Every structure is written in structure tokens, then in C-alpha cells.
Amino acid sequence: MASSSISSCLRLFTTRSFLSPKPRKNLSFFYKPTSFAKNPLSKSLVAVSSSTSTSPIQPVEDLPPKLQEIVQLFQSVQEPKAKYEQLLFYGKSLKPLDTRFKTRENKVEGCVSQVWVRAYLDDQKNVVYEADSDSVLTKGLAALLVQGLSNRPVEEIVKVTPDFVVLLGLQQSLTPSRNNGFLNMLKLMQKKAVELVFESEKAGGSVEGSNLGSKNSKNLTLERKGDGVGGLESKVESSSQVGSGKNLTLEMEGDSGAGDNGSNSGGLGSRGMRIRDKLEKELRPVVLEVEDISYQHAGHAGVRGSDGETHFNVKIVSKEFEGKSLVKRHRLIYDLLQEELQNGLHALSIVARTPSEV
Amino acid sequence: MEAVVPKLASFNLLNPKSKSKSAIRRFSSALCVSSSPSVTSTDSVSLGHITRPDFPILHQEVYGSKKLVYLDNAATSQKPIAVLKALQNYYEAYNSNVHRGIHFLSAKATDEYELARKKVAAFINASDSGEIVFTKNATEAINLVAYSWGLSNLKSGDEVILTVAEHHSAIVPWQLVAQKTGANLKFLNLNDDESPDLDKLKEMLSRKTKLVVIHHISNMLASILPIEEIVHWSHDVGAKVLVDACQSVPHMVVDVQGLDADFLVASSHKMCGPTGIGFLFGKSDLLSAMPPFLGGGEMISDVFLDHSTFADPPSRFEAGTPAIGEAIGLGAAIDYLSTIGMQKIHAYEMELAKYLYENLLSIPNIRIYGPKPSEHVQRAALCSFNVENIHPTDIATLLDQQYGVATRSGHHCAQPLHRYLGVNASARASLHFYNTKEDVDEFIHALNETVSFFNVFK
């Protein structure tokens, strides 16, 4: 019985290749203020946290196709032992994760066993996952997620809730602590997907962002904040450390929580002054505050080897931003500061408003 | 009934001075429940077989069709009907707040609560029931000693000796108090036999040592320590000893006067009693000198706006309304255990321990932690183990799902010990007197099949 279920599993493998790269047509949604405002990210994360409550479970059709396949496969296998064999078989499909990826940032919290998840973007900018665990059952669960979510568009990935594990018929076979590990695995994979995509947008090219290097990046916070700024209402913090190539820390703030950055034109080094000058010249701001916060990132691997002036807070109020979405505003600023970005500027934390918004 | 008579000796509660007829009634009802066949065990009818009917929870199937085999007793024990009845009876017949009331119900509740205290004292041979402080559990009891005795007796430079095998509850409170007082914690390592190195302990003890915190039986290693000697050596240097008896009081005779322990803690839920209650034994003179731990009602004498005066022990350390029903339930558990007799329970469990260990050894590539049993070295009836190349959680999951065998996997509240042994986690099977050899057989069978299952997938 075990062999038949394995061979049926193999059949499914060969007929439908899950490595179907899809063109990335979908990132444009980031640029439309209205769709971003309704972005599924915050909704699905809210759904994830309340999935154990009485809300109905996510319909199978909403799952990525590969995951639907997996669900159907498990449902077709009735006997619990055979389900385990199925799970273990999936686990075997995971190639072992290289030790250098078994980092804290890749470790899944709340697992009784040790689980690591790595995510990177391939040439077509699809998120690809790798995972490993010292427990074979957990490895099987990780494999389900890796196969189900790899090479899928990020909007699809973040919509997935852990409800489907119920459909697998494994849930009652999994202890609560293991289930929590599963939930956390999924959340970590979703978080990594979002971060990779954001940072690839910034770099404007394909980026290998495997580890979340910076100690300063905490959990991904996605909050819906309604305020007068029509449009972007989410605050996303992501950072990544890359072996070679650009390091970019991106912080987008769309709400009024900017706090007191203080006017800090004094105490700026040469780069700081150049930033000020450029922005003043091109954007004729009503308010401009540029603050060097590189000291906060001292010791961050991306900073080592440079001579400071790597991280800045920028608060700018200008008419030039009227009619532009937040992302467009940030884009504008980045374009103006291209040269600096090429030469050691690592991160800009930007607050960009129109005079009427202040 | 003749076979029962010798057991009366261990049930020292039953003396002519005992005023409550209800105690006798309870005793005989416990007796009826537990001894329908002859109480003396024969080859075919072990103590496990005799007592199983008293534990309703054991007679069920899990996951539809699998008979439950409960082997997680070191985590918590099951409760006999007598204890369940005592709890129900408390709430049905005489629930009332204790110590202060005037009316009939409260007098009765107070009597029963204090009777339970006497039972605990008698069970561990404390000289006076005033040496028993009821707490929420053993963890709270240790914290009581740490914050009350520790904060007022430890100063910078003083040493507290613990072992690397201690439960977190015996380590963390002392870390917190050491931080506040500037005392140093010293940890005793294991010897080659994976048991605390007692020779090393003798070397570590010095005039700087103020306290030794040590387990009687290890919940992971199954080692049984010679507390009497350890107390002797400690007293020689002027150190006090706090004994963590959570795994010993439920399974063997523990005599605090014989051991001369200064403090001893145990939890009710590990000895067939309800959760929510435990106790601290402390020598009278020690408790009398200790400041309060938690403040509130019950533990005071007079309360003014700017200061209060405090009650004598044990009340001094029992703030607020206690877990009255639970204490009475613990008393009922002690009655039940005493009816059987702790020597008998201990003897049976030693048999089971040997059986478990020997059978476990037959599993290929298994590594059992703790000392090897021999003529001189006894192990408790539990085994923590790992099977090479198989994660203990995988084992425990399949044992549960496929075979209904309840075991535990993880660090068993002993992370330092696991780190010391160089493992992330281990699986553990732990027995109690209501387990049988058949339980062990089923466990071994299930474990064999589980190991084969995972080996196929390597």
C-alpha cells in the first residue's frame, strides 16, 4: 500500500511540473494606490492570526495550484500510516540545506525540532524556497510548503493560510506544538517572500537575498493605518544582506508616525550635504530634514568597510509630490540620489509629503 | 481481609486519637475500591493489574481505535476514583472558606483542610504538621524558599550548589535570587555513569556553601541520589539542603526526619493528587525565621495602614484563600497510596524499571541516558532515550498516532542537562504503579515498529 501511494505521488510529479516560471506581470499592483490600500498582505496576515478561531477555513481554490494538488493527494490517501509515508516522501524531496543557510534568521520559531527556511529570487524574479529539518515529519511538512509555494507570485503566497493543513487530514495527527511550527514556517516563508520582492524592486534587478542579515530588522510589520494620506497605508520594513552586489535597507513610511526626526542639517558629512543639495535643487521642498543615522547600523555587515554615511532619515515636504503615489515619490527621490546609492549609500528612510498633507 | 491488616501500620493516620470517623469511612471506602481481589501480588496479578480499575482515565481508546498506553507519568500522574470523589464531595457537601468562618460548613472545611496537612506531614514523616506549607506546586515551593529564605540569608560571595541535571524550577529561582544577592551558583557535573558526581560534590562543598539544591530522583536520568549522605556532608560545612522530591515522594518512602532535610518540595499532581497544590516541608526553626513570601490575608496577624504583623508558619506562607478542595484531594491521594503501601509501590516499580530498561536495550541503536542499573545502582522507572538518526519528536508522534502510546519528547524542563549531554531533545517513557508489564511490552513493540518505519525512509 505504501508503494502504491508513492507511485501515485510520482505520477503526479511527472505529469505536472511545478517549476513553471510565470512572467512577473503582477508587481504593478504595488504602484496602484487603491489596490495597495486593499492589499491582501495585511488581510491575510490578520486571517493567519485568527485562523484558529471560528472563521471558516480558506477554500481550496484559493490555494496555489501545487498546494491544491498536494491537498487532493493527501485526501485520496485514507490510512494515517500511508499519509505519513506520503509526508516523509515529500520530505525526502528536499535537498539538504547548506550549513551556511542554517542561521538564526532562517530558523523557524516555535518548533519542537529544528527547522530552517531559505528564500531567494530566481532569474525570473520568482521566490524559490529551500528548507531543512532534523525531524523527518517536520521536514515533510516543510517540503509541502516549499513545493506548494515555490515559484508562485508573492500575492498568491501571502494569501495562503495554514487552514489547508486541516484538509490534509494530518492536523489531528499533529500535536499542537507541531502545528504551531507549521504556522510559523508558513509565516516565515511569507515574510521572506515579501521582503525579497520589495528589495528586488529597489535594486531594479534580480537579487539574491537569502539571509536577513541586519540585526535591526525585526518582524515584518504590516499595519493598515488609515490617515489623510490617500493611498498607501502600509508600513513595511525589510532588509536583506547579500553576499555580493547591493545592500539595500528599505523603509517606507506612509503614515504620520514619523515622530521627531529633528532638524539636523548641522552635523552632516559630505554625503549628507550632497543629499540635501540635490533634494533642495530638484524638489524645492518646503521642509527638508536630512539625518545621518549610520551610527545605528554600525557593525551591520553591509556597513563595514565603508566610512560611515550609509543610513539616512529624510523628511521632505514638496509640491513635486502632488498627484504621485507614495511609491512614485520614493522612486523619484531614489532616482535623484542614484549616484550616492551606487557609491556606498545603503539606506534611506523617507517621509515624503505634499504641503497639503502636512 | 487478613492480607490488608499489615498495611494499617503504614497508614499512621489511623490512631485512636484521630477524631474523624469520616477518615475511617474514607479509608474503608478506598480500601474497597482498591482491593477487590487480594492485595498481595502474585505472578499473574501484579499491582498494576490490581490498581488499574481505580483509574477511569486509563480505560479509553485514542484516535478511534487505539488503546491508551499512558507512559508520561513523570510529567503528571493519573487520579484514582477515591481522589475524584473526594474533590466532588468537597464541593458538593462542605465547600467553604477556611480558618475564619464560624459556621458549620466552614468549620468542616477547615477541619478537612488541616487534616490534609496532617496527612502530608505523616506521609513524609515530618515531626509536626506546622512544617508543611501548602503551595500551588513544587515550583512555587522552591520560589518560596528562594525569595523568603534566600533573599534574607544569601549575600555576596555565598555559594549555592546545584547539579546540571536539575529541573528548571530548581535552577531559575536561584538564578534570580543570586542576581539580587550577589551569591554564586555552582553546578555539579555528572560522572561517567551519567549520574551527579558525588565525589566532586564533596570537593565543592566549603564554608562558603550556604545551600545545596538537589533532586532526589532525576526526571531524565532516573538516578536516585543518597540524600541522607548528601545532607550529612552539607551540614558538616554548615550548608542547608533543599531536596526536590517531585519524582521520589510519589514512588517510594520518603522520610524527612531520616534524611534530615532542611527543605523538601513535591507536587500533588505527580502523586495521584489534583493539580494546583503542592507543598514545602521546612524545619520549624527555619520556617520561623523566614520572612513572608506573598502578602495578603491569612498570613497576617494584625494589619494597620502603615505596617502589618505576620502569622506563624505555616500560615505565614499561605496568603489568600488556598486550594482547599485540592488540598483535601491530595489528602485523599495520600490515603490511597498509603492503603497500598509505599514500600509495595516502590518494590513493584523497581521490577518494572528493570523490565523497561532491559527491553529498551533491545532496540537497535538506542541510547538510554542516566546510570546503568546494577546491584548497587538502582534506576527509577523511567527512561529517557534517543535512537540514532531519528528525531525523538518523530518517534513520540508516531508512537502516539499509530499505537496510542503516550510518551514525551523534548527537553523535559532540563535544558542544561540536554546541553551537557550534547543533545537537542530526547524521548521519555515513565511509569507508575498502575502500569503493567503489558504496557511496557506494547511500548517496546510500538517503538520497534516506529524505528523500522523511519529507518526505511532514511
UniProtKB/TrEMBL annotation, chain B:
Assigned EC number: 2.8.1.7
Keyword Transferase recorded: yes
Gene Ontology terms, MF aspect: cysteine desulfurase activity; pyridoxal phosphate binding
Superkingdom, natural source: Eukaryota
Residue ranges of domain Aminotransferase class V in the record: 69-443
Transferase is among the record's keywords: yes
UniProt KW keywords: Pyridoxal phosphate, Transferase
Catalysed reaction equations from the record: (sulfur carrier)-H + L-cysteine = (sulfur carrier)-SH + L-alanine
GO biological process, one term: cysteine metabolic process
InterPro entries: Aminotrans_V_dom, Cys_dSase_SufS, PyrdxlP-dep_Trfase, PyrdxlP-dep_Trfase_major, PyrdxlP-dep_Trfase_small
Cofactor annotation: pyridoxal 5'-phosphate
PANTHER family: CYSTEINE DESULFURASE (PTHR43586), CYSTEINE DESULFURASE 1, CHLOROPLASTIC (PTHR43586:SF8)
Name of this protein: cysteine desulfurase
Protein species of origin: Citrus sinensis (Sweet orange)
